[in-house]
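Quick one before lunch.
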Amino acid sequence: MPDKEFLEAYPLYRKCDFNVPFISDDLPSPSINMFCPNCTSIQTYNMINHYVGYNYVGGYTIINEEIYELQYQCMGCKKFERFFYIKFDVQDKNVFKIGQDPPWSISINTKLNKLLGKNAYLYKYALTCESQSYGLGAIAYYRRLIEEIIDKLLNDILEIIPDSKKPDYEKLLLNVKKSKNAQSKIDIVKNEIPEILRSGGLNPLKIIYDNLSVGLHEKTEQDCLQISDELRTSIIFMVEIILSTQKSKKEFSEKLQKRLKKHSK
Ligand SMILES: [Zn+2]
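Model of the zinc ion complex:
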């Protein structure tokens, strides 16, 4: 720690475990991939400096809580910089961000915004909760969002399913229509989603299902943040795959149409 995912994706105050003893000279310096406004694209950033408190690190063993400033520079333009302020809690063996510049983004990309339509505000509310580490609040908004978009999402999957499997999936969709809530709808189709929606053997619909089913009363805020993180990444992954598959299918059929027209002349 800190690792790439922690720096790129964790909101402020979300705790991340690390092992002591920890020597500041050995602070890991993973490259990260984040948006650069100069390059207007996702770029690799490398850590160019880190500071403990106000002193440049010479090599101290951490014996108590310490605050670090990490300075990252975009490797594309070698100009734009990102700063992370992280605090090590040696007693509880964890590390968390206490500041970040530019701040953790709660902006929503245009494609997702369009797809979520009038429900986009639920996604933004969830992100706002996450950015403040209110895991329970974030889950409530993600659950509401899923209830609102689940019918469209499951219908859209039909379009990217191989033709030979479409009839079976369509039958399941009839049962989906009769079901009342997202959990039971997902339960019907979760094992029938196409390979393209499974990443590294993980099934995002199953992850959503499991996280909708889990009881929250005994969960800590950190557990809740883990759940909200899984809900968000599963939703985004599915939406992005569905949109890009629809887009490439459309482009392919347009190309085919053009070719056919050309040949028929
Ligand atoms: Zn750049």
